[in-house]
Design goal:
alpha/beta; Substrate Binding Domain Of Dnak, Chain:A, Domain 2; Rossmann fold; 3 domains; six-stranded parallel sheet; 17 helices; globular
């Protein structure tokens, strides 16, 4: 076995990648990432608990999330930087985890992968200058204690604690984004690419997009979002830039086809970057935690090379109309927490009057595995007296559908990125409050898709909140042992998706 990795939904044979990652990560890169995590765990034993070190740790954790950093040299250099700062004799090796009994390995993997996802959210807040001592201390403590032996019930408790602290972390990120860029407002986004030079921005980072917008203003270069960057169009402090024009393409797993020979510069700000094809490798740029071999990495926040490349390529000679997977050319986004809260009473009134029979939280990560058309078919089958709350890139399976409205409320309500899951959770809680019941009694069904570790920590937050009957797909995580899976099924009634028709009927009857 050259490597071992089973942290993403597409892991080989739904058991683990052992010779090379399905994500295209080499065995060497996988082992270097394990070494980086080992160095972080060792560093956490005696490091000072300050802002500089928590930023260093969250960056390291974020770098090992699926489809973020494939650059061996970058990972090796960062590992050495952390080792040079370490003041401990502890020499924990993450590879010890892969040799544990399956239940210990499963629960510790849940903790570690949840921590990676949380670190991604925390890093987005940190770059905007927002810290939370409780979140920082939890990351320090969890890493420090990670090498220790624990009883099963202690590990289960820690798994749910990850979910609890992640809720606080997502709340912090929501605050960072809305205080910096103002509350999102519902916005229609065009998928038409105007003629002339342009830059495609992928990933999740609002701060990197803002810096690019400032530096490219007046240059004659237009900016288009891709994937999880779509919700950026709804933030007032970003949409004020007139050259932020629209959205290019769909979800991350389609990038190799959509970017093929595109006459534009492409900037990746975070996950999800795939193996870069030769037909567009010369125009790909990375920044922050994301890096890919033989592409240009932006340093010191100077996006001049990206802008100049876009000018040189020139863009399309005529406007080009692009569509979503269902043929739509316009996307509606921007239903953030404030907009949802402002409409909570109206939603409950319509629900009590029988005009809205059920709300489906239908979203999460998209991916390439066969079977994800389930979510498209599910959306199409939902009755006209139901709403769909959606978030993350899984929405690209159906967000260009026109499913109509219910008394002025669109039937597809785009809450935002996976980073905005806090908004969806809070509206669920608010509906329960206004409805006068707990969340599990609200006519609300969770039908989720997952791919990587950010989705894992969101799931742990939902479990911490005791939300039941979550449907998860397209497959269950390979890192769940039989006993751990049985526990989740018995305790929280987690279900794997079956068919859209059956699952929809079960949801409509509250099952």
């Amino acid at each position: 076995m050259d490597m071992f990795c089973f942290q993403c939904e597409q892991t080989a044979h739904n058991s683990g990648c052992t010779s090379g990652g399905v994500c295209s990560k080499s065995a060497k890169c996988a082992n270097l990432q394990d070494d980086l995590i080992s160095s972080v765990i060792n560093f956490s034993q005696n490091c000072e608990r300050n802002k500089e070190n928590i930023k260093l740790i969250t960056k390291a954790l974020f770098m090992t999330v699926t489809n973020v950093n494939f650059c061996d040299e970058d990972i090796l250099n960062f590992t050495q930087e952390i080792k040079n700062l370490s003041k401990t004799d502890t020499n924990y090796d993450l590879k010890e985890l892969w040799r544990k009994d399956e239940d210990t390995r499963s629960l510790k993997s849940l903790i570690l992968f949840g921590l990676k996802g949380m670190a991604a959210y925390y890093y987005h807040a940190i770059v905007l200058g927002y810290y939370d001592q409780k979140v920082s201390d939890f990351i320090f403590d969890t890493l420090k204690q990670f090498p220790q032996e624990f009883k099963t019930d202690e590990l289960i408790s820690e798994v749910l604690k990850v979910g609890e602290i992640n809720l606080k972390c997502m709340e912090l990120l929501d605050k960072a984004n809305t205080e910096t860029y103002k509350d999102p407002i519902p916005t229609k986004v065009s998928c038409t690419i105007e003629k002339g030079p342009f830059i495609i921005v992928s990933g999740h980072d609002l701060h990197d997009l803002e810096k690019l917008l400032k530096q490219s203003e007046g240059s004659g270069v237009n900016i288009y979002t891709h994937g999880e960057m779509l919700p950026c169009h709804s933030y007032p402090e970003l949409k004020k830039y007139s050259h932020l024009k629209g959205n290019f393409g769909t979800a991350w797993q389609n990038q190799q086809k959509e970017f093929d020979n595109v006459p534009a510069a492409i900037l990746f700000t975070t996950n999800c970057i795939m193996k870069v094809q030769n037909s567009y490798k010369d125009r790909v740029f990375t920044t922050s935690v994301v890096n890919y071999p033989n592409t240009i990495h932006i340093k010191d926040d100077d996006f001049t090379p990206v802008i100049e490349t876009a000018k040189k390529l020139g863009g399309y000679k005529e406007d080009r109309k692009m569509t979503g997977i269902n043929g739509g050319n316009e996307l509606l986004c921007g239903f953030g927490r404030k907009t949802l809260f402002d409409n909570a009473n109206k939603l409950v009134t319509l629900m009590k009057e029988g005009k809205i029979k059920r709300i489906f939280l239908l979203g999460g990560c998209d991916g390439a595995k066969v079977g994800r058309n389930y979510y498209t078919e599910f959306a199409k089958l939902t009755p006209k007296d139901t709403l769909i709350l959606t978030l993350a890139c899984g929405k690209y399976r159906f967000n260009d559908l026109d499913l109509g409205e219910i008394e002025g409320i669109p039937r597809i309500i785009d809450v935002g990125q996976c980073n905005d899951a806090y908004s969806a959770i809070r509206i669920a809680q608010e509906l329960a409050h206004v409805y006068g019941c707990n969340v599990n009694e609200v006519p609300l069904s969770f039908v989720l898709s997952w791919y990587e570790q950010k989705a894992v920590c969101i799931l742990l937050t939902l479990l911490y909140l005791k939300i039941e009957n979550i449907r998860l797909g397209p497959s269950l995580p390979a890192f769940l042992s039989k006993n751990v899976l049985n526990f989740l099924v018995e305790k929280f009634k987690i279900k794997q998706i079956t068919t859209p028709q059956k699952d929809l009927q079960d949801c409509l009857f509250g099952r």
